[in-house]
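REVIEWER CHECKLIST
Item 1: Sequence provided? yes
Item 2: Single chain? yes
Item 3: Sequence as submitted:
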Amino acid sequence: MIIPFDLQTQAIASDGRKCIFSTVYVDIIEILTSPEEALIDPEMQGTIDMIAEGGSFSGDGVDEFLLDALKELQAWEFVQEVNDKDYTYWVLSPKGLLLKAEIK
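Item 4: Structure as written out by the authors:
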């Protein structure tokens, strides 16, 4: 599978050590679940609040940041947006489920 984003990124800590951590895309993929699971268990429905909490994302503009990342993942066909009558949530597409299996 061709993945259009880096699974990990590097940063240099203030003490000069290199740190490797996953990107926001990987964090989102690991948090989300299949449409079937989301339908059975509403707590598994990937609302922006649930994704922010599950990935420990916080701060001003976090909703816009996560929405931008979700839109990119949607453009790459890894996630799907589900519009319920009351709210919107996100789930993994079949391609996203394959990616989640590969990164674990």
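Item 5: Key structural point noted by reviewer: Strands lie at 8-12, 18-22, 79-83, 88-92.
Item 6: Recommendation: ____
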